[in-house]
Design brief:
This protein is of the alpha+beta class. The protein has eight helices and 14 strands. Strands 1, 4, 7, 8, 9, 10, 11 and 14 form an eight-stranded antiparallel beta sheet that branches. Helix 1 packs across helix 7. The chain is flat and about 65 Å long.
Length: 279
């Protein structure tokens, strides 16, 4: 039987991007997301969850109990409906709750991040034990647009026309910080186990190496700092623990262009909380 999670966990995930676009905004011509007031870059929680899903799919090849619910070309209602065709659900008095348990057992991302499964045959709603904040860059970012040229055309009738021009948006460098939370109470409700948590942290460490593209430049996981509480409900406020992580630019007189331009330190955790640096 899989080992249960009995301790609340909070974590700080630090990653960077060089000459790339970590998370384009479709409402702004796919330019890097930015806080208009501070100039800091933003990466959404959904963006990182997508990369975790993709890593688990690649590493486990949709194995039993490690399938991915929200994946490319998935028809979600069909997947929800299929849970109602299982013997466990057919024999259950509360079919919604039984279908929810079947979906949690089958799909890694449901028991990790949760899901709303009321759009087809009702399988209820699941609150996931792991949640992210938006990631925010330590310093303001500078967005740059580059003109690019396409040297081929799509139709025979266009082959004598001028080659088309396009645009590509990047930032020279950005160091981003994400805060995350693992609820032991919700983990018990979804069946999220210690093995699932180990796989999640493995994904955070390695997922950028499975997600390279010309648009994203060089993205690298730099630090993963885990605060593990001695109790299920926790021994200190998450915000107090996150304040223990100090990120300082070594030379503020010039723009940062690599992680080596920063210094990361972690303060002393309060009683009842242990600190582990996985990266």
């Amino acid at each position: 039987m899989a080992q249960e999670i009995n301790n609340r966990i909070d974590f700080v995930y630090i990653f960077d991007v060089q000459d790339g676009n970590p998370n384009g905004d479709p409402d702004a011509g796919n330019m890097p997301r930015i806080d208009a007031e501070t100039g800091q870059g933003i990466v959404t929680d959904v963006c990182l969850k997508r990369k975790v899903r993709n890593y688990v799919a690649a590493a486990k090849n949709y194995a039993a109990g490690l399938d991915i619910f929200v994946k490319e070309k998935a028809v979600l209602n069909t997947l929800i409906d299929s849970a109602h065709d299982t013997p466990e659900v057919k024999a259950a008095n509360d079919k919604v709750d039984a279908a929810r348990r079947v979906m949690c057992a089958q799909y890694y991302d449901i028991r990790t991040f949760g899901a709303v499964m009321t759009t087809g045959k009702n399988a209820g709603q699941v609150r996931g034990p792991i949640q992210f904040t938006f990631s925010r860059s330590v310093d303001p970012i500078v967005t740059t647009e580059h003109s690019i040229t396409r040297m081929a055309v799509t139709k025979e009738s266009d082959k004598d026309k001028e080659r088309t021009m396009g645009r590509k948006s990047t930032i020279p460098y950005g160091l981003y910080v994400c805060h995350g939370f693992v609820s032991a109470n919700l983990a018990k409700q979804t069946g999220f186990s210690q093995d699932d948590l180990d796989l999640f942290f493995e994904a955070l460490k390695n997922m950028f190496d499975q997600d390279h593209s010309a648009a994203r430049g060089l993205m690298t996981a730099q630090r993963l700092i885990v605060f593990r509480h001695d109790s299920e409900l926790g021994n200190a406020p998450a915000g107090r623990l996150f304040d223990l992580v100090n990120i300082r630019r070594k030379d503020a007189s010039k723009p940062a262009r690599s992680f080596a331009d920063y210094e990361v330190s972690v303060g002393q955790a309060p009683a009842g909380v242990s600190v582990e640096e996985l990266i």
